[in-house]
Amino acid sequence: xxxxxxxxxxxxxxxxxxxxxxxxxxxxxxxxxxxxxxxxxxxxxxxxxxxxxxxxxxxxxxxxxxxxxxxxxxxxxxxxxxxxxxxxxxxxxxxxxxxxxxxxxxxxxxxxxxxxxxxxxxxxxxxxxxxxxxxxxxxxxxxxxxxxxxxxxxxxxxxxxxxxxxxxxxxxxxxxxxxxxxxxxxxxxxxxxxxxxxxxxxxxxxxxxxxxxxxxxxxxxxxxxxxxxxxxxxxxxxxxxxxxxxxxxxxxxxxxxxxxxxxxxxxxxxxxxxxxxxxxxxxxxxxxxxxxxxxxxxxxxxxxxxxxxxxxxxxxxxxxxxxxxxxxxxxxxxxxxxxxxxxxxxxxxxxxxxxxxxxxxxxxxxxxxxxxxxxxxxxxxxxxxxxxxxxxxxxxxxxxxxxxxxxxxxxxxxxxxxxxxxxxxxxxxxxxxxxxxxxxx
Length: 441
Ligand code: GLY
Ligand code: MN
Ligand code: MN
Known about the structure:
By secondary structure, this protein is an alpha+beta fold.
């Protein structure tokens, strides 16, 4: 099983320490456990940025990175985590504990999480800058404020709290935005498994199947490959495909309708994000095919615009122009191409953006604008390309034959020196290829 190594996490901590400068401290907490109902919790998923720096997936953990007065002293990594506890481990599973934090996660120092308030104070005192991810957890924010107050309370003894509090997300988010070859390998694996799941869905669908039964086909492929969905799966038959975040997936799939599936998995904390739209009975109707090909043309052209140096918005601009021209050609919209684009009248049928950063989080971190301008693509950025067209079932401005058709096609694309690299190419998307695959299943 392909995984990142401790050397990868160590390298990230070293980069962060370099960015922090001398005599500084960074505090990064993982996510709290989320309750589902009463005493049943959701399966735990560590915070992405915390895992990015530590490789540590247990709950109740805090990483502390310190730099010192001189560069020669390097940096230190302290991990606060749950202690080993035989009873708790019998009930709830294995813990690395203090020894494991040092031996398996390369911590220079490790402490029981219960000692955090006590042990953090001497580390904070006399540091110049505190880097902290403000705004993720109000309870933890309040705790950090208490530490600062307490550290300042010691000033008469010649110590003080850091004078500067800096938003740590800015630094980590920029690091996470550019993917290393090792990260891209994991994203390729996630994409391959998700592509296999979509292929299985195309092969399995039949009229009168329930949407959730089709979702189960996807979940089987994710699960047997050691993956979990990277977001709630959307399996929308017919007009449900027009609801952008439809996740009920509890209706019947009807003969003659399309089904839109936006579903993908994460592998070793790295996400993929795929949408395919295909006919429940294996054959596109003339209207479905005509609209589908407009979206596909827009998507292929938009993918081609994911090139180093192009603005982040270029794929969207390319997609919108092709979608609007297609709507005009099919008589679904009337008027002037440029006017429809400038006035954004196309939002009646295309109301979302064409993509987002992808990485450890499905809507990944990293700013989209720099100095007020859409930033250019750089090598190693990964973006989704996901144009769509949605004709609302009650839209009386269009001929009835188009109503209730919702189509989106989504792939994951890396900006590389050789041009766009499509991670999710293993699942078919032309009308001909989809119909051929479904006919042979
Ligand atoms: N699956 C979420 C999205 O496409 O943004
Ligand atoms: Mn997406
Ligand atoms: Mn998606």
